[in-house]
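Lab notes, practical 5.
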Amino acid sequence: MKGWALHLYLIAIFEAQAHRPRGFAVDNVRPLLYGSGQHTAWVDLLPAITATAPRSAGMRRQLVRALALLEQERLVALNGRTGFRGRYDHFRLLQEDGKTGQPWASPYTIPLTNDISPIDPAWIRPPGPVSGRSTAVTLPATFFLNGWVHVLSAAEITTYLMLCDLEARYPEARRGGVYANDPQRETWYGIHRDVYASHQQLAAYGLIERLDAPARRPDGTIARGAGQQMLQPYRFRTLSGGFDQSALTTVAHHLDPPRDAPDSRQ
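Output from the prediction step:
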């Protein structure tokens, strides 16, 4: 999903789970733009940045775009038809499978205890749960509280969630690392190579561990002398403790060049 659509949906799920009991449907009572003493506005929970003046107009535009994308994916229900006044106010969350788009069908409900791990407070149901496996993917609360949902790109979040889903589906494989080859990534998750490449940033931030792959260099290219041997895909383990770090500080550290690095303009 483009823009801030994925971020908005995850924040909305976390907000719902933080304030409501398990098994209950969710009512969105937050205003879109202007908060009050009782309810913070959605615009204040988003990582959106705008140079538009006035700022409120630019922020509303980004919110509207995100909600329009989520409606296309059948993840939220909006009010009335396009152009309807108040169409985006009090949008309604729908189930994560995106199978139904009618406002009255499949509203989002907080996963029950038997659907989830008892450890982490943020859950997302993956599509097509495997029999006997967890039907929810877990994200630690620190993903939200320490700013990672605001700092990570949509590609990085998508890749991380794919690895979480693979670990939930195949828990016995987690120790040796989970993986997805090109056909699996594209068919199961719609993740193409450019998005998948974000695993390099996730590893640099300490959010996942990338295990060594025979015949591959650290950047994923084929090492000299690999010959005709069958190349193995990278295997990964998620490191939930990585979210205990401050997102802004961690990412800024990896984006800023070392102070003693030579000036590339010379």
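Observations recorded by the TA: Confidence is low (pLDDT under 50) at residues 116-123, 261-266. The CA atoms of residues 114 and 134 lie 8 Å apart.
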